[in-house]
């Protein structure tokens, strides 16, 4: 979280919050608190008095999945433009005011949402709410500012995607694994769409999605919730709501066979990236498989001696790296990722076979009680560790709400995870890890062109 | 990597407000000889313990670059009575997290555990074993050597990594900070090299133990001794971390500009020189001044000129990285190939302008306002407190470093900044590296 304007967020392996309040006597039972303003804006406050600071997050339920072809990347571009001024706060002033308040601020765009945050000494919370509410409806979107900022975004794309072989691999895999759903498009946007983007595209996006009834505010910190509700009413309350466009499901057509692609880029290590279509949580109470997939992910890659590391890296020495990733909460379709680089002398095909064998072994033999207990022990501990960070607590609340799951269900989700059985883990391995649902992407590393010796010269005047 | 450095510099660099002192740090020397720093805090049922040892890459013998890092990496891959799988499984069973870091000056081992005795005690037993009885098993060593070589070869294809290695080599010719692990240097390492490195560097007298969280002083005393008593024995008395590093100073490099071809879309530009040592009296003027130059996120001169006005780069920054011996002052940016020279020119003009004039009054006030005002944010979690106190402990900074931080920041004048930059950021010693420039 150190780079300004993250274009994507790396979700934690188990992105779920637990209250576990019995363990934290200082936290009142009713905490967090929630109120909805007349304009539809919801405000969620979690009091945490360990330090005299607060974090304010303003979330919009509009991410790259809400974009249409031709203007991909506009969600993220607009995020950049949000720092470029309103009639009352000039371009760059937002950052200056936050800095002067002793604060830190940033924003991030994901497939599902766009969010803005400020971490400040608690007495500055009001000023932050005033600034944040101002830009919810009063953004300038000056063409001159746009012309500079779109260049910055193109540099960001070069930095994070075009010159990163693994990011390119992931981007192209998504576009093959998914054909109808907009998750297939990169958050930062295709370069050609960035090149032809206009300030009007940004304005259209802003007018469509930046309204209080499409947003919610999360505050965590040394605050009094009633006071925060009052401030929210004062600053966000006057903003008018507006009907939102219909959102269509854009469900994927059925995949019926394995899909394959290759990316060539300058690199040393080959990479195998396998993505299986799997479900995500739609019904917290009645779903089973997404919880079992979360536990499977932890059993495969939850610690240094989890299955992938132990078997593929350490015992077979088939891979120099091997990992799994799955996020059970998302607005769009779910993918379960497996990724690794073969050891020297081993091929991509051998590593792919190695991954497949690990799934086959689970289907055949199941997972052990020890493995499952271990994954659950890590889960319980991680919920407590999360309480050390106000920012992490605000993220938990926001990420659940952004995908349409109430933050009040966080505890229930942990219970559901803890109730997962070895049989359920085996079932999901059998059900989903099949060729019909698989896309395999391979990075075929290309040698760097032979370069002349580095040229070093005494520097002239600077 | 680079951004991790920025964060650590800011964390260690910028703290405190007069009205809000830092955490109460208790300090003692364990019977083992290790220096101990303890912050008691019962708000959460969590305990964090970090051991920092003066056993970083600067201690690599010539020709054996990568040795310190590999020794550190193998600590938890087999100890007396437990193999790597048992160690990892046991930690996971306890919900404990053991992590580490290897830098030039220091290596770190950090444990985060629940503080309940039935979790804490067995987790700390493992940490003690990892510190005091690593076995460096032959099979594990061969495997990790191969993985390390693979990782280094991959890094040699990456423009950022190529730039960073060339930059450090140019800043520190013929000095340990300038050496880096290569596939060749790691390939020649032997298992016995790790054992020998461990025996001569992992000593209690070279260790700082930082403990933060849900523990009493008496428990902390027992813990610190227990953790460090089994380290290889050493003669001599406890010494502060600073000063036990390579004794001779690096020689300031002559200004050079190095261009390395690469097919990347963006050029990676690094400019800098060895500049600042831990404990240097110019620390505060340099840190406050750098906020205005390139440290203060969006409000710095570099950000305004390079990013906001011209759209040349997504990221542009400058920072000081104080180390046991003078660590870098570094400016960095990435920009598309074709405009690399323009971006470099603007960057140099901004730097030259700042060196000539120093910050104006408004910039100085803004810097102080942010650095002092954001103090509470720098210490609002156990993890952040741990990071800050570990730096104080390892480098032997004054225990009231955090308490007096705001006061020291407030005292800085524009004239002091200008003079300090003139002493530490000398253009005749400035090296430039451009990878993938046109």
Strand order of the largest sheet of chain A: 1-2-6-3-5-4
Category from helices, strands and their pairing of chain A: alpha+beta
Uncertain runs of chain B: 1-19, 235-244
Strand content of chain B: 15-25%
* Separation, N- and C-terminal Cα atoms of chain A: 33 Å
End-to-end Cα distance of chain B, whole Å, is 25 Å
Q: How confident is the prediction overall: mean pLDDT of chain A?
A: 92
What is the mean pLDDT of chain B? 92
Number of helices of chain B: 16
H and E order of chain B: HEEEHHEEHHHHHEHEEHHEEHHHHHE
- Given the helix and strand composition of chain B, which structural class is it? alpha+beta
For the largest beta-sheet of chain A, the strand count, sense and barrel status come to: 6 strands, mixed
Bin the strand percentage of chain A. Answer: 15-25%
Helicity level of chain A, as a percent range? 25-40%
Uncertain stretches of 5 or more adjacent residues of chain A = 1-28
Q: List the strand order in the largest sheet of chain B.
A: 1-2-6-3-5-4
Would you kindly provide a written description of the structure presented here, covering whatever features stand out?
- The complex is a heterodimer of chains A (462) and B (438).
- Chain A is an alpha+beta fold.
- Chain A has helices spanning 74-81, 93-100, 125-137, 143-162, 165-177, 191-195, 199-209, 225-235, 289-301, 307-315, 348-365, 369-385, 390-402, 410-418, 422-432, and strands at residues 33-36, 42-47, 53-60, 104-109, 114-121, 215-221, 259-266, 271-278, 319-326, 334-342, 438-446, 455-458.
- In chain A, the strands form 2 sheets. Chain A has a 6-stranded mixed beta sheet with strand order 1-2-6-3-5-4, with helices on both faces. In chain A, strands 7-11-8-10-9 form a 5-stranded mixed beta sheet, sandwiched between helices.
- Chain B has 16 helices and 11 strands.
- A 6-stranded mixed beta sheet of chain B has the order 1-2-6-3-5-4, with helices on both faces. A 5-stranded mixed beta sheet of chain B has the order 7-11-8-10-9, sandwiched between helices.
- Chain B is 43% helix and 17% strand.
- Chain B is globular.
- Chain B is an alpha+beta fold.
- Chains A and B meet through helix 2, strand 5, helix 4, helix 10 and helix 12 of A and helix 1, helix 3, helix 5, helix 6 and strand 7 of B.
- Strand 12 of chain A pairs antiparallel with strand 7 (256-260) of chain B, so a sheet runs across the interface.
């Amino acid at each position: 979280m150190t780079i300004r304007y993250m274009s994507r967020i790396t979700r934690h392996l188990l992105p779920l919050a637990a209250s576990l309040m019995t363990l934290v006597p200082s936290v009142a039972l009713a905490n967090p608190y929630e109120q909805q303003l007349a304009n539809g804006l919801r405000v969620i406050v979690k009091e945490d008095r360990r330090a005299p600071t607060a974090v304010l997050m303003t979330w919009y339920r509009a991410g790259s999945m809400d974009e249409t072809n031709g203007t991909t990347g506009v969600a993220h571009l607009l995020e950049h433009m949000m720092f470029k001024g309103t009639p009352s706060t000039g371009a760059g002033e937002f950052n200056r005011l936050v800095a002067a308040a002793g604060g830190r601020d940033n924003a991030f765009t994901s497939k599902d949402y766009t969010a803005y945050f400020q971490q400040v000494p608690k007495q500055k919370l009001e000023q932050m709410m005033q600034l944040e509410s101002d830009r919810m409806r009063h953004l300038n979107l000056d063409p001159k500012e746009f012309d500079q900022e779109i260049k910055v975004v193109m540099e960001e794309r070069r930095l994070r995607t075009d010159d990163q072989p693994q990011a390119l691999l992931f981007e192209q895999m998504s576009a093959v694994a998914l054909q109808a759903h907009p998750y297939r498009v990169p958050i930062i946007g295709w370069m050609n769409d960035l090149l032809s983007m206009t300030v009007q595209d940004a304005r259209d996006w802003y007018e469509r999605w930046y309204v209080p009834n499409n947003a919610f505010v999360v505050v965590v910190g040394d605050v009094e919730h009633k006071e925060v509700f009052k401030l929210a009413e004062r600053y966000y309350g006057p903003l008018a709501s507006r009907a939102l466009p219909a959102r269509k499901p854009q469900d994927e057509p059925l995949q019926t066979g394995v899909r394959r692609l290759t990316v060539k880029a300058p690199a040393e290590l080959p990479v195998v990236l396998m993505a299986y279509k799997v479900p995500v949580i739609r019904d917290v109470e009645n779903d089973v498989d997404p919880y079992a997939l979360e536990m499977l992910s932890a059993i495969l890659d939850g610690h240094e001696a989890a299955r992938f590391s132990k078997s593929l890296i350490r015992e077979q020495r088939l891979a120099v790296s091997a990992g799994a990733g799955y996020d059970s909460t998302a607005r769009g379709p779910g993918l379960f990722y497996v990724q690794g680089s073969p050891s020297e002398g081993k091929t991509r095909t051998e590593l792919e076979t190695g991954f497949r064998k690990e799934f086959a072994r689970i289907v055949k033999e199941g997972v052990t009680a020890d493995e499952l207990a271990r994954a659950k022990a890590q889960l319980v501990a991680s919920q407590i560790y999360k309480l050390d960070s106000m920012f992490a607590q605000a993220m938990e609340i926001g990420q659940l709400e952004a995908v349409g799951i109430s933050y009040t269900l966080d505890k229930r989700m942990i219970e559901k995870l803890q109730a997962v059985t070895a049989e359920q883990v085996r079932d999901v391995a059998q059900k989903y890890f099949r060729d019909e649902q698989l896309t395999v992407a391979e990075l075929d590393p290309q040698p760097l062109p032979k370069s002349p010796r580095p040229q070093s010269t005494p520097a002239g005047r600077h | 990597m680079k951004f991790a450095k920025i964060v650590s510099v800011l964390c260690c660099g910028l703290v405190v407000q007069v009205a809000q002192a830092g955490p109460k740090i208790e300090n003692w020397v364990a019977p083992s000889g290790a220096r101990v720093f303890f912050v008691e805090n019962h708000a959460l049922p969590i305990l964090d313990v970090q051991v920092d040892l003066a056993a970083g890459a600067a201690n690599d013998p010539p020709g054996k670059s990568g040795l310190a890092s590999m020794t550190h990496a193998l600590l938890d891959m087999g100890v007396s009575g437990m193999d790597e799988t048992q160690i990892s499984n046991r930690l996971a069973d306890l919900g404990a997290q053991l992590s580490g870091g290897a830098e030039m000056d220091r290596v770190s081992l950090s444990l985060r555990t629940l503080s309940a005795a039935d979790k804490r005690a067995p987790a700390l037993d493992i940490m003690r074993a990892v510190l005091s009885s690593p076995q460096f098993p032959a099979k594990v060593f061969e495997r990790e050597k191969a993985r390390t070589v693979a990782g280094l070869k991959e890094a040699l294809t990456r423009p950022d990594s190529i730039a960073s290695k060339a930059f450090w080599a140019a800043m520190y010719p013929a000095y340990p900070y300038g050496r880096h692990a290569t596939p060749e240097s790691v390939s020649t390492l032997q298992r016995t090299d790790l054992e020998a490195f461990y025996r001569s560097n992992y000593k209690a007298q070279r260790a700082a133990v930082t403990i933060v969280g849900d523990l009493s002083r008496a428990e902390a005393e027992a813990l610190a001794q227990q953790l460090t008593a089994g380290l290889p024995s050493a003669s001599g008395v406890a010494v502060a971390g600073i000063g036990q590093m390579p004794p001779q100073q690096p020689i300031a490099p002559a200004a050079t500009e190095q261009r390395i071809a690469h097919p990347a879309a963006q050029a990676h530009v690094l400019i800098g020189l060895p500049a600042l040592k831990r404990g240097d009296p110019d620390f505060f003027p340099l840190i406050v001044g750098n906020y205005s130059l390139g440290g203060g996120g969006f409000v710095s001169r570099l950000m305004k000129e390079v990013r906001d006005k011209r759209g040349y780069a997504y990221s542009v920054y400058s920072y000081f990285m104080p180390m046991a011996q003078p660590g870098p002052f570094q400016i960095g940016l990435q920009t598309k190939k074709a405009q690399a020279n323009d971006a470099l020119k603007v960057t140099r003009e901004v730097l030259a302008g700042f060196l000539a004039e120093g910050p104006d009054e408004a910039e100085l006030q803004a810097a102080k306002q942010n650095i002092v005002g954001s103090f509470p944010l720098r210490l609002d979690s156990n993890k952040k407190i741990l990071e800050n106190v570990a730096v104080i402990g390892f480098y032997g900074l004054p225990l009231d470093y955090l308490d007096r931080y705001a006061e020291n920041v407030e005292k800085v004048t524009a004239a002091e900044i200008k003079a300090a930059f003139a002493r530490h950021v000398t253009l005749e010693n400035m090296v430039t590296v451009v990878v993938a420039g046109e």
